[in-house]
Amino acid sequence: MLEATGSVLPGFPPSFSLPTRPSTSMTSSPSTAPAATASSAQKGSTASPFHARPPIISTINFKGGVGKTTSCLNLAAAAYEERLSVLILDLDPQGSATEFANLDRAGEGPTLFNWLTNSCSLQEVAVKIRGGERENNERENSSSIFLCPADERLIQIQNILFSEGKRSYLQEALAKEALATETSSFLRRFDFIFLDVPPSLSSLSDNVVLASDLPLLVLSCQFMSLKGLRRFTSMIRRAERAGADPDWYILPTFYRPTEIESSLVWSRVAEVAKVYPEGRLLSPIGRFAAFGQAFQAGKSIFEYDRRHPGAEQFLTAFIEIREAAGREDAAPQNSAPQNSDPQKKAS
């Protein structure tokens, strides 16, 4: 059981601290209840939390400008295109995903800060941003996307997690939410949960890895990004020492096969992925101005231009993630085939 130590933060009374989470049979501690991996999900392991909640996918990097939030939003949109329902948790204090959804919650409703401080349930925080639209004026899409918005107070959450040494707090909070009678039906309506993570090394990032079933490193195909790969694998090793056993994935972004730097980084990342049997290199995402234009318009790449190559790439990457999560049962009969040639996908 976690114990609050009463860490004091600017703007909070001396008694302010993250609440103690009651232990649960699903995640009583990282060492006794590791996060489910893709292989355990596919084998039908009884320890898998997939029985109580959807698989959790986290998009991670330690610097901005690599397409982390863009990837999170468009992977969620790809799930929505496949008629699946998704919950997005914006854990980045900068709130880029919240900005995308045009949700400025400053003083106007609960955010993830309120949920993490035990002030409300996740259902009270979540806002429906997609769902129920009619397609071509004919049939209605029954799937949905809900987003739990962020605010700047999440920085203070990071500080508390560090000062109190809480590395499994998020994992236990999600476990409590999944097992609570009044909220479990809310989580079970979703096929996947996506976590957008702050672009920094922090205690919150460690919490996210421990809470994730499928940590996803969003890695731009640039030489400077290789340092982020080393940091990511170090974080995975820390999670394993804490008792977790995640299968992790690399999603290359800004990929252009005609550029020497891009191709060299792709080759290097592919070599590294072979060293780690639990790692997997997903199909790459190209560099397109349309991603930024769609974001500014508050649209996914599918809404902006369904026939754009970037839309096909994100759909392919999502299908690979869905298969890795052992959730082929959620796939429609007409799922798009995968293209295994990255040069054709990101040309």
Commentary on this structure:
With 347 residues, the protein is of the alpha/beta class. Helix content is 39%, strand content 13%. The protein is built from 15 helices and 10 strands. An 8-stranded mixed beta sheet has the order 3-6-2-7-1-8-9-10, with helices on both faces. It has a two-stranded antiparallel ribbon with strand order 4-5. Helix 11 (260-275) links the parallel strand 9 and strand 10. Helix 2 (68-81) crosses helix 14 and helix 7 crosses helix 9. It is globular and about 50 Å long. It starts with 37 loop residues before the first helix and ends with a helix. 49% of the residues are buried. Mean pLDDT is 77; it is low at 1-16, 22-50 and 331-341.
